[in-house]
Structures are given as C-alpha cells and as structure tokens.
Amino acid sequence: MLSSNVDNHEEIAEMIRYLGGDISEGGELDLEATHLLCSAPGRSEKMLGSVAAGKWVLHPAYVARSRAAGKFLPEEEYEWGNPIATCLPSLSGAEKTLGRAAHRWRSSRASGNPGPFAGMTALLHVPAARKRLLTRLLEAGEGTSVDDEPPYTDDSISVCFADIKRYPLSDRDAAWFISKRIPVCPPVLLSSYLTDDVPPNPVEHCLPDYRPK
C-alpha cells in the first residue's frame, strides 16, 4: 500500500513490480497487503489499520534502495519507529508516537501476540461512512464489531464507541448501556489502544452522561 503523502506513485509502483512485488491500488486499508509506504506516519485509515494489523510501515526510500540492489532489502533500516532506522527524516512528536506504535505492533504481531483489539466486542454508534472505516480498523486489530441497530439489545457488547454530537443516542439506548454497565466512549480512544504502552481501560474513559449511577 502507498500512503497519499508518497510522491512519485507510478515510479515507485513500477520499481515494486520490477522486484516481483505487487501494489494495492485502493484508497482504503487492504488487510491482504504486507507493507505500507509513507513519507511520514499520519493518522490515516491505512496508517492506523497497518499499525493494528502489525504490517511493515516503511519510508519510500526502501523501494529505491531495493531497486538499486536488484532485490528487496531487509526492512528494518527503513521502518518508522525502529531504533536502528537512524537515517530516516526527523519526525514531529505525534509522528514519532505513531512510528513507535507501528514498530511495536509489527514486532508484537510477528511474535504471535494478539492484536490491540483482541477480545473486544464493540458497538460503533457513528455515521455509516465512519462505521465502515472503524469496522476495518477493529478487524485489523483482531477486534469484533457488532452488527446491531437501535434499539440496541446485543448482550455481547463489551464497549460502545459513540459520536454523540453527530449521532446522538436515544434515551432508551442510553439507559440500556447504563443498566448493562457498558462503557460509552469517544471513538478517538481506539487510537490509544495503538499508541499507549498500557491499553486504556474503557470504564475510565466512559463519557460522563453514560456512567452507571
């Protein structure tokens, strides 16, 4: 996969094909892809999904250097967040955080450890387009998205991620979540499962109006 911040898409794609690789052309996260090339780590769907899935997240220079060598080189020196990748451009604080997360989860998943959302059964109470995006993110990190519609009744839900401002909960559903002691959290919390060394406790991040009395 190529991030939108990568220049010379066609040239890079040609080099990858020359070396025997293939390109995922779509604009969305491709769970079948093995690598993501990006000029800097950013909070795109492809980036966050690649982190969750444990894919290689590399600087585009990897392809040019591999082309010069006539073969795909070892990735580590071109991997964002990898301590041995000392020749990559400097990053901002937020970019560094994402880069470290990419390296950490790639190493963890390669060692056979579960994904960042493993064991999570989440309800996504958000507009449809964002729901599709977040569902792919959950799946990339071995989580489950519940296919349920209001009024909600699925007792398997362990957490609800809700965009309350754009997509308010009904009084009935709000009362149901509170009675079931299911935390209702802002969707941005999903990023913290990727970047934080200790996974967040959704109960501690439950929106105030939905905390059990």
From TrEMBL:
Signal peptide bounds: none
MF annotations from Gene Ontology: isomerase activity
CDD domains recorded: BRCT_TopBP1_rpt7
Gene Ontology CC annotations of this record: nucleus; site of double-strand break
GO biological process terms held by the UniProt record: DNA damage response; positive regulation of double-strand break repair; protein localization to site of double-strand break
Keywords assigned by UniProt, alphabetized: Isomerase
Domain BRCT: 1-80
PANTHER family cross-referenced by the UniProt entry: SMC5-SMC6 COMPLEX LOCALIZATION FACTOR PROTEIN 1
Name of the protein in its database record: DNA topoisomerase 2-binding protein 1
Lineage: Eukaryota, Metazoa, Ecdysozoa, Arthropoda, Hexapoda
